[in-house]
């Protein structure tokens, strides 16, 4: 460390370049010491282009001819279009050129089949002088640039020790703002911020989409720990062919309309994809059992990108004829196919439709499986596939088919419907290979059906490297208690029902959302659901409309760019009850507002389509939204196991389930915050009492809760006493604890019986 403290940035730069030229003691990047200007870069690219196209060129390119080349590259206006250009048609990037002789030629720039070999040239340059592009901005000088076939592909900005990669990222953002990544630098794909002890990489992007949160550390494959050493990073990422692979094979072109961008895969995505491809490459479709294994990547970690890249690269292996991506619900077919088509680099290129297709029905599925087609990635549902193979007309398929199963845990339940479907498909198509992707595997069923675990990236690693959202629980009190409350006031304020009728509560909730929406939604990048509950088995629809109307009211006072797009969903009332007219009128009004926002034409005859459209914008099907509302919130929503704490405890201690641990930690956090709030309200505390099912029986939760408040209140458990199960009232705090902690058993059945006797005066 002390050595790096004394090194200048230029010394560090020279050391990096020297290391890149012979990584692992093998000749790697060729250092072009004398190339320091943009014009020299163009000349170097010209030489390589001519060298790789000698068979098509009788002589070197003239100034006029090469100006056509320069114009084509300089007209690339976004990293996405650069990615399209570099990928070309079927992996071959070409430039169309009219020679002075009148001859029309196509010159090859890149050939994806020649990664790490063939005619591909790998070079490194530094201190490239860049004149200002935007008036009033200074001339610039880039640190280190990696060239592939003469074009800038990877840009490295260095900072010496005791400086932050954040400075390098800010610098590259400034370059983007100043349009410096233009001309020959239009082809940049990857940006790297490097210090001696921290390195982050990200895909090149537009200024509008630049987000330092997408600058990642590389990770060690064996333990998912970040790589901190620049030399280790160079070994793992900047060596040849890995650097080229990262900028091509492991780069995703996202063609989502109006959001076109490039995405570079995370380390765990690369590792998982490599392991699957290795298994597929070695698989003998005629003799092996087809169980290649499964990938366990936690929810929210980008399984769609990983599975797409796997499908895409596998479909190009010589021993694979077709890739079928199976989803577990018909409703997800279109959604998944849309995502895959957006990632398809062929789609939209020179009028091509791409290689990804979905299946409108079983007959469409049969046609696409039995005819020769360049659409060799098929997205369909397990239901359609099962029915197809069950037809009397079904004939065994003669091709090598790779099945990739999404949400594989849904296909591995004991005797589940989907499991039966999966087995019927496997029996009908024995000449196939199977890969499962899941965020929540079932043990041992998932392994029994798909084979061994190939790669895991669990919630623990995901939260540690900030790849998925952690939990941020906020408690807000909208209705303040009076300063000198009466007994009635106190009763009103401790009842949850006070929030069911208060217009003030609605106003304050909506105001809080407007005030904090930008930060909570990561600058409006995420959608959100607001659920409304009313106690006493009353209808929540009128209350929901109060919120809706309050959003509309405040929206009218805001400038256009600060307004929120708000929609509401509930069912048509067909009960002929007293509230039918009002309910349906409100729904009609809400649909009209939705039409104004999104340019749709729904009405009361197309409520189902309206709900489906709304759900699709939230990236959920209508049934899924209802399922989340009704069945998957609370402890079940977090754990993915059960709403019963006993099941969660069992999963934690007997299975080592990480989501069960997360549920316990969050539960304890919520309870401990309530303890702190009541401590403040009461002006102190004599005892903390645990009771009822969880309080009596979950010793680990009691420990987690008390641990959270121990330092603030001087309260400590006696671990031996806490671990004892008993039906007796007992103290479980330590003798030196300043507040007693007690367990008070309850018997709800007895209390119900006693209340019944009392009420009936028996």
What does this structure look like?
Helix content is 43%, strand content 15%. It is of the alpha/beta class. The protein folds into four domains: 2-264, tt1808, chain A (Alpha-Beta Complex); 267-464, P-loop containing nucleotide triphosphate hydrolases (Rossmann fold), CATH 3.40.50.300; 487-639, no CATH class; 645-748, Nucleotidyltransferase, domain 5 (2-Layer Sandwich). Strands 13-14-12-15-16-11-17 form a seven-stranded parallel β-sheet, with helices on both faces. A hairpin with a 2-residue loop joins strand 5 and strand 6 (151-158). Helix 9 runs parallel beside helix 10 (303-314) and helix 25 (645-655) crosses helix 26 (658-682). The longest helix is centred in the last third of the chain and has 25 residues, at 658-682. The termini are far apart.
> What percentage of the residues does DSSP assign to strands (E)?
5-15%
Morphology: globular
Q: Write down the CATH topology of the largest domain.
A: tt1808, chain A
Q: What would CATH call the class of the largest domain?
A: Alpha Beta
Structural class determined from secondary elements? alpha/beta
- N-to-C span: 83 Å
Tally of separate domains? 4
Helix content: 40-55%
How many strand elements? 20
Task: Output mean pLDDT.
Answer: 84
Alpha plus pi helix count: 30
Report Rg.
31 Å
**What CATH architecture of the largest domain would you give?**
Alpha-Beta Complex
Query: What strand order characterises the main sheet?
Result: 13-14-12-15-16-11-17
């Amino acid at each position: 460390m002390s050595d790096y403290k004394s090194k200048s940035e230029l010394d560090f730069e020279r050391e990096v370049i020297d290391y890149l030229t012979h990584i692992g003691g093998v000749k790697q990047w060729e250092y072009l010491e004398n190339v320091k200007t943009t014009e020299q870069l163009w000349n170097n690219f010209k030489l390589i282009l001519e060298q790789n196209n000698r068979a098509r060129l009788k002589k070197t390119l003239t100034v006029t001819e090469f100006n056509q080349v320069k114009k084509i590259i300089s007209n690339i206006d976004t990293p996405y279009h650069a990615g399209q250009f570099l990928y070309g048609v079927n992996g071959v990037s070409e430039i169309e050129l009219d020679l002075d002789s009148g001859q029309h030629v196509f010159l090859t720039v890149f050939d994806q089949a020649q990664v790490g070999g063939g005619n591909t040239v790998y070079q490194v340059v530094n201190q490239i002088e860049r004149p200002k592009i935007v008036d009033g901005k200074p001339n610039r000088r880039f640190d280190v640039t990696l060239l592939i076939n003469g074009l800038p592909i990877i840009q490295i900005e260095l900072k010496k020790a005791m400086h932050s990669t954040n400075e390098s990222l800010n610098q590259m953002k400034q370059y983007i703002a100043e349009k410096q990544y233009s001309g020959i630098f239009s082809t940049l794909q990857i940006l790297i911020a490097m210090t001696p002890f921290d390195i982050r990489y990200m895909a090149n992007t537009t200024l509008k989409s630049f987000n330092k949160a997408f600058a990642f550390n590389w990770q060690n494959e064996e333990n998912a720990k970040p790589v901190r050493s620049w030399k280790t990073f160079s070994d793992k990422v900047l060596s040849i062919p890995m650097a080229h692979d990262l900028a091509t094979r492991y780069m995703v072109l996202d063609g989502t309309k109006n959001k076109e961008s490039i995405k570079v895969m995370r380390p765990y995505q690369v590792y998982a994809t490599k392991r699957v491809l290795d298994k597929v490459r070695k698989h003998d479709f005629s003799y092996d059992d087809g169980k290649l294994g499964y990938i366990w990547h936690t929810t929210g970690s980008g399984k769609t990108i990983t599975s797409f890249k796997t499908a895409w690269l596998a479909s190009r292996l010589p021993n694979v004829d077709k890739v079928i991506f199976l989803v577990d619900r018909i409703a997800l077919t279109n959604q998944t196919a849309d995502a895959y088509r957006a990632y398809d680099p062929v789609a939209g290129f020179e009028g091509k439709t791409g290689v990804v297709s979905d299946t409108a029905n079983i007959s469409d599925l049969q046609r696409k499986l039995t005819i020769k087609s360049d659409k060799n990635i098929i997205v369909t549902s397990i239901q359609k596939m099962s029915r197809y193979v069950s037809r009397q007309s079904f004939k065994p398929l003669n091709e090598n088919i790779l099945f990739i199963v999404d949400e594989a845990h849904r296909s591995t339940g004991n005797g589940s419907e989907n499991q039966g479907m999966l087995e019927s498909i496997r029996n009908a198509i024995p000449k196939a290979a199977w890969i499962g992707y899941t965020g929540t595997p079932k043990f041992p069923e998932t392994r029994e059906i798909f084979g061994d675990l190939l790669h895991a990236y669990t919630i623990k690693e995901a939260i540690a490297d900030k790849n998925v959202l952690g939990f941020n629980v906020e408690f807000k009190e909208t209705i303040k208690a009076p300063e000198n409350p009466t007994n009635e006031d106190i009763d009103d304020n401790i009842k949850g029902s006070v929030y069911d009728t208060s217009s003030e509560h609605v106003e304050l909730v909506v105001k809080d959302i407007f005030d904090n929406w930008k930060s909570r939604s990561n600058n409006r990048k995420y959608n959100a659901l607001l659920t409304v509950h009313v106690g006493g088995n009353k209808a929540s629809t009128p209350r929901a409309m109060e919120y809706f109307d309050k959003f509309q009211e405040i929206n009218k006072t805001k400038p256009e760019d600060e307004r929120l797009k708000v929609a509401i969903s509930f069912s048509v009332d067909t009960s002929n009850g007293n509230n039918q007219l009002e309910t349906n009128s409100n729904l009609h009004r809400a649909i009209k507002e939705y039409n104004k926002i999104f340019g749709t034409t729904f009405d009361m005859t197309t409520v189902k389509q309206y709900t489906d459209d709304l759900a699709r914008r939230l990236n959920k099907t209508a049934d899924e939204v209802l399922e989340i509302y009704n069945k998957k919130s609370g402890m079940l929503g977090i754990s993915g196991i059960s709403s019963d704490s006993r099941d969660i405890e069992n999963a934690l201690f007997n299975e080592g389930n990480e989501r069960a641990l997360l549920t316990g930690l969050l539960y304890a956090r919520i309870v401990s915050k309530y303890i702190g709030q009541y401590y403040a309200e009461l002006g102190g505390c004599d005892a903390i009492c645990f009771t009822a099912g969880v309080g009596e029986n979950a010793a680990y939760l009691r420990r987690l809760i008390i641990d959270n408040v121990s330092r603030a209140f001087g309260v400590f458990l006696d671990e031996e006493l806490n671990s004892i199960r008993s039906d007796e009232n007992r103290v479980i705090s330590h003798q030196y604890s300043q507040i007693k902690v007690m367990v008070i058993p309850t018997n709800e059945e007895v209390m119900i019986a006693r209340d019944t006797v009392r009420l009936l005066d028996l």
